[in-house]
Specification:
alpha/beta; 9-stranded mixed sheet; 6-stranded mixed sheet; 10 helices; about 25% helix; globular
């Protein structure tokens, strides 16, 4: 079996594991921001022009995959594949942190190729948020090396990432890393590296152009998935400052990262000549590419392409409303009786409001098309969030009930 040591031919010592620079921790900046406008949304008026969408998240059992595979002996020469996929509902939160890790892995590989006087050539597969952040960070790190991005579509609205809410929180995967101290530290490292990139964008005044804004996140439930993240400020409230929410709760000061602004901003940094439209149908097609370093950001597509049985699609429903009140806060953490908690959240973004509440395992062939069975789910989601802001959060009902 060919190993990296063998690839370097002749016993050159392997490079050490990359040192992880300590992320400079900062908090969301509220100075100079517009008022939060802490009033309930005018739901009944907004629903008239609501848009309903469905997305399928690339959930990976056991956590996302971020590792180097290779060297691989192919008809096109020796290659390495850096896998970066399976982030589930936390892709936007983790994208820059994982991209920073990808850059460090690629730096090792570039050094190896240069020792052998082989010119490195980089390909990124996937134009969701994971692929685009990986590509742009690689372009920043390797100014003289070509970085080509392959995607089956450059219509960003068709990507899973574009349909995300955009809250800075490692939702849906936090529990998979909260099993022991080592895994908690690992996830914390990735999140802090993402936060460091956001902090840099704040300091340079570029955050808004990437769709990043400070947000107050209110919740009735202390277990909101933020506790590990030292860059997120937590505030206890005896009474929440939203007049219709019941009793006390918690506030987390975090970020909105709006994918409808972020993705076009990132894609614009990839020159047209470096964008290729191509749908890969097998691993062999990927290995046949004329690149010796390949970054696999194919999301759920990796299940078939790389036979990853740990990937499980999770289908989610979202309702998008206009935001004429210019609300600037989040609500998350669910509602309902203690013995029957229901997912329910509302994110007020720059120009719209996102309502969500579903998290369901799906079959591999599940479509994003809205079927008849989806319509009562949307109705129940909307009814639940209305109850939350009417001070009736204990009356929320499961989405599979009609009563």
């Amino acid at each position: 079996m060919l190993t990296r040591r063998g690839f370097l031919a002749g016993g050159a010592a392997l490079l050490g594991m990359p040192s992880i620079a300590r992320a400079q921790i900062c908090t969301p900046l509220f100075e100079g921001a517009a008022p939060d406008n802490l009033v309930p949304p005018t739901f009944d008026k907004l629903i008239r022009n609501a848009q309903r969408v469905i997305g399928v998240r690339p959930h990976r059992i056991g956590g996302f995959r971020l590792e180097t595979e290779g060297p691989l002996t192919t008809p096109k020469g020796v290659k390495f594949i850096v896998h970066n996929y399976g982030h589930s509902g936390a892709g936007i939160t983790l994208s820059w942190g994982c991209a920073a890790e990808v850059v460090e892995k690629v730096k090792e590989l570039v050094a190896d190729f240069e020792k052998l006087k082989i010119k490195p050539n980089i390909a990124v597969i996937g134009a969701g948020v994971i692929g685009l952040t990986s590509a742009t960070e690689l372009r920043n790190a390797f100014r003289t090396l070509p970085v080509t991005v392959y995607s089956d579509t450059w219509d960003l609205k068709k990507t899973t990432s574009y349909k995300a809410g955009g809250q800075f929180e490692p939702s849906m995967i936090y529990h998979q890393y909260n099993t022991n101290d080592e895994r908690r530290r690992l996830l914390k490292r990735y999140v802090e590296r993402s936060a460091a990139r956001i902090c840099w964008l704040q300091r340079t005044g570029e955050a808004a152009s990437y769709g990043i804004a400070a947000r107050r996140n209110f919740t009735l439930n202390e277990q909101a998935g933020f506790d590990f993240a030292s860059m997120v400020v937590k505030v206890d409230h005896q009474k929440l400052p939203l007049t219709t929410l019941q009793g006390g709760g918690f506030e987390y000061r975090t970020w909105l990262i709006n994918p409808q602004i972020l993705l076009p901003k990132l894609a614009a940094q990839i020159p047209a000549k470096m964008r290729v439209t191509k749908r890969f149908r097998s691993r062999e097609e990927i290995e046949a590419l004329p690149h010796n370093i390949i970054i696999n950001c194919t999301g759920f597509g990796a299940k078939a392409l790389f036979e990853d049985r740990n990937l499980q699609p999770r289908r989610g429903h979202l309702i998008l409303l206009r935001n004429p009140q210019k609300l600037r806060y989040f609500f998350s953490g669910g509602c309902g009786r203690e013995d029957e908690r229901v997912i329910s959240y509302m994110f007020a973004r720059q120009d719209d409001i996102v309502i969500g509440g579903t998290l369901r395992d799906a079959s591999d062939g599940d479509s994003v098309t809205i079927e008849d069975d989806d319509k009562p789910i949307f109705d129940r989601m909307f009814s639940n969030i209305k109850m939350v802001f009417a001070g009736q959060s204990d009356q929320c009902r499961r989405l599979d009930t009609t009563s």
